[in-house]
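Appendix C: a fully annotated inverse folding record. The material below is reproduced so that readers can follow the format used throughout the book. The structure is listed first as tokens, followed by the designed sequence.
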């Protein structure tokens, strides 16, 4: 019997980093995304974010590609957000996303990181946070493409 468990920290942002995720209603969005995950048999360990971006920590079924999950989650949630009067400014998600794998031993660290997004962003702007995540995961930042929509 095969055993596969891959933990992904996914970061998606709103188009042009616009502040369009209404914090008063973000839990509704999180619940909707939780429903998408449940339907696709994706284990959602934590979701959180700010008005311009979201972090998800998930484990995907071994038969599902990360690109397919992110595409379907962004597409479905984008349609829901545009129809929902609680998010009148939402236009769409940015085209790109970040997804990095982590070991089981890192699970609580990533969960706490996502849980503390509000506090974290009192000190750090999203572009600096995103640069740090990319650098920590060995990604070279190409300025002409960084944060491009």
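Designed amino acids, in order:
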């Amino acid at each position: 019997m095969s055993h596969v468990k891959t933990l992904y920290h996914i970061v998606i942002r709103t188009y042009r980093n616009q502040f369009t995720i209404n914090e008063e209603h973000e839990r509704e969005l999180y619940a909707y995304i939780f429903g998408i995950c449940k339907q696709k048999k994706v284990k959602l360990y934590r979701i959180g974010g700010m008005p311009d971006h979201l972090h998800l920590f998930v484990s995907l079924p071994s038969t599902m590609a990360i690109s397919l999950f992110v595409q379907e989650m962004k597409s479905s949630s984008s349609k829901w957000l545009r129809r929902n009067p609680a998010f009148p400014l939402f236009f769409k998600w940015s085209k790109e996303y970040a997804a990095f794998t982590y070991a089981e031993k890192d699970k609580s660290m990533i969960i706490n990181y996502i849980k503390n997004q509000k506090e974290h962003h009192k000190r750090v702007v999203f572009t600096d946070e995103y640069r740090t995540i990319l650098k920590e995961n060995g990604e070279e930042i190409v300025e002409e493409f960084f944060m491009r929509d």
